[in-house]
Write a structure and sequence with these properties.
The structure is a homodimer of 277-residue chains. The first copy, chain A, is an alpha/beta fold. Chain A folds into 2 domains: 3-159, 3-Layer(aba) Sandwich (Rossmann fold), CATH 3.40.50.720; 166-275, Orthogonal Bundle (N-(1-d-carboxylethyl)-l-norvaline Dehydrogenase, domain 2), CATH 1.10.1040. Chain A has helices at residues 11-22, 36-44, 53-59, 72-81, 96-107, 139-145, 162-190, 194-201, 203-216, 223-236, 242-253, 266-275, and strands at 3-7, 26-29, 48-49, 62-65, 87-90, 112-119, 131-135, 152-157. At the A-B interface, helix 7, helix 8 and helix 11 of A face helix 7, helix 8 and helix 11 of B.
Chain lengths: 277, 277
C-alpha cells in the first residue's frame, strides 16, 4: 500500500487525493496553517492529517503537488529542502520551462520527478472525465496510483514538459477565449454597439457567451496566474505571448467576484471591466 | 440617378460597387495606376472608368471608400484635398477613433461623412448575407443606394464610430480566434504534444480548426493591419489591446502564403509559424 502525500487539498487537490485513495493508496496531508474549510474538505476526501510538511515528506513514497501556479516552485523547493527521495508529481498549470526547472530542483537530491497536467473540473465522479496527463520516465508509477479511480490518468510521453504543454495549450483556447469574449463585450458596450453585436452573433452564440463569461467570474481570481504561465509557454516556443497577457489582465479585473454569493449579471461583469480601465 | 465613386475595386470593393449599380446608381472608378486584374474586375462589375481621382471627386455625389485599413486615412485625405463636397462613406476595417478622425478630415470642407462596417465576404449574391452596417446622420442616404442589391445595408446609429466598432468587435472574435488557434497548434507542435492536444480536442473540433487555419492563409497578409486596428479599438475603450497585437504578429508570419496557387497543409502552416520565430 503506497503512502501518498498530497499538497494541497484545495477543491481540485482534494478530489485528486480522494481518487488516489480510491486507487488503494493511503493519502496524507499536512494541516499546519490551513483553513477550517480546507481541513473539512480533506477530512471528507478521506485524507489523513500528518500535520507538518516535514512529516509528509518523511512518510510519503509519492508526493502530489496540486496548487495554484504561482506556488508550484515554492512547494517543490520546500519538499526538496526537506530531503525528499521518492517520486514527486507536479500536476499544476505551469509553463513547460517552469516544470523542467522544478524537475531539476526535485531530482538534484536523488528524488524522481513526473510532470502532470489536469484537464477538466474536480474529479468527483468518473463520468466527469477529468484527465490527468502524465509525462516523464516514471509517469506510469503515478498512473498506477489512479487505476480504477474517478481520475483518468494516462501517460503521453517520457519527456518532462509534455504534460504541462498539453495542459497549457488546451487551456490557451478555453480560458483564452472566455477572456477575449469578456473584453469584446466591454468594448462593444463602451462604443454603444453591444446590442448590434449580439444581434449579428445571433441568439445562441450570445446566450452561450453570456453564460461562459458569467460562470467564469467566481474563478477569475485564480486564472490570472495560469494565463501568465500560458503566455510564458507561448514565448518559450517562440510564439507571441500577448494573447494571454491580455487574458491575465481581464481576469485580474474580474478578481473582485471571488467568493461572491450570487453570480453577477452580464451588465455587472461588463461594468467591472470598464470601471477598471 | 446618383453618381457613386468607388475607391477601390479590390475583391470586396468591386462587389460593393456592383451592388450600388444594382441599386440604380452609376458607379465610377479611377483606373490610373491600377493593375490589369483590377481593371478587369471593375469592368466585370459594371463600373465606369473615369481615369483619375480628380475626375472621380468632381463627378461623384457619393464616394465609397473600400480599401485596406492602412490606406483609409490616405484615401480620405486625398479626397478632401481635391475639395469633395458630397457624402463620403468609409466602409473600412478601422478603429472607431481612426474613423472619427477621418470624419473630421472629410467634413472640414463641407462634405458629409458616414461610417460603415462590412461583415461577411464579397457581396456577390444576396444569399451570402453580406452586411453593410452604417452610422452617422446621413447614413440612410447610403442605405438607400443599396436598396434591393446583394448587399444588406442597415443603419445602426447616428453616431460616427458605431459601425466601425461593430465591425471591429465582430472580427475580434472570428479572426482573433483563428490567429490564436494557429499559434496554439505551433506551440503544441514545438513541445511535441500536438497529437495529444488534437485527441483531447476531439475529431470534430480538430477538423474545424485545421480547416479554419488553412483557409485563412491566403488572406493572412491583409489581416495584420485589421488586427492592429482591433488592438487600437480595445485600447481606445480601455481594454487590453495585446490579444490582437499577438494576432497581428501571427498573420504577419503567415503573409508568405499570399497568392499561393495551392492551399498549404496544416504541417506547412505550423512550420511557417515556428520558422519565423
Amino acid at each position: 500500500m503506497t503512502t501518498v502525500g498530497l499538497i494541497n487539498p484545495g477543491t481540485m487537490g482534494a478530489s485528486v487525493g480522494a481518487a488516489a485513495g480510491q486507487g488503494g493508496a493511503t493519502v496524507i496531508w499536512a494541516s499546519t496553517g490551513r483553513s477550517l474549510a480546507t481541513r473539512e474538505r480533506a477530512h471528507e476526501s478521506g485524507l489523513e492529517d500528518c500535520h507538518t510538511l516535514k512529516n509528509l515528506v518523511a512518510t510519503s513514497e509519492v508526493i502530489l503537488s496540486v496548487c495554484p501556479p504561482h506556488s508550484a516552485s515554492d512547494v517543490a523547493g520546500q519538499v526538496a529542502e526537506l530531503g525528499f527521495s521518492g517520486i514527486y508529481l507536479d500536476a499544476n498549470a505551469i509553463a513547460p520551462d517552469v516544470t523542467r526547472q522544478i524537475g531539476l530542483t526535485i531530482t538534484k537530491r536523488g528524488a524522481r520527478f513526473v510532470d502532470g497536467g489536469i484537464i477538466g473540473g474536480p474529479a468527483r465522479n468518473v463520468e466527469y472525465g477529468t484527465q490527468l496527463y502524465l509525462s516523464g520516465e516514471d509517469a506510469s508509477v503515478i498512473a498506477d496510483i489512479f487505476e480504477g479511480s474517478n481520475l483518468h490518468a494516462s501517460v503521453i510521453s517520457d519527456q518532462i514538459g509534455a504534460a504541462s504543454a498539453l495542459k497549457m495549450t488546451f487551456a490557451a483556447y478555453t480560458k483564452g477565449t472566455t477572456a477575449l469574449l469578456s473584453a469584446i463585450l466591454a468594448v462593444a458596450e463602451k462604443e454603444g454597439v453591444r446590442a448590434n453585436l449580439e444581434k449579428q452573433w445571433g441568439d445562441e452564440f450570445t446566450r452561450q457567451t453570456h453564460q461562459r463569461v458569467i460562470a467564469n467570474t467566481a474563478k477569475a481570481w485564480r486564472f490570472e496566474g495560469e494565463m501568465r504561465e500560458i503566455a510564458a509557454t507561448f514565448s518559450g516556443a517562440g510564439l507571441p505571448g500577448n494573447f494571454h497577457e491580455a487574458a491575465a489582465q481581464v481576469f485580474a479585473d474580474l478578481a473582485k467576484f471571488k467568493n461572491q454569493d450570487e453570480t453577477p449579471g452580464i451588465e455587472e461583469v461588463v461594468a467591472a471591466l470598464l470601471k477598471s480601465t
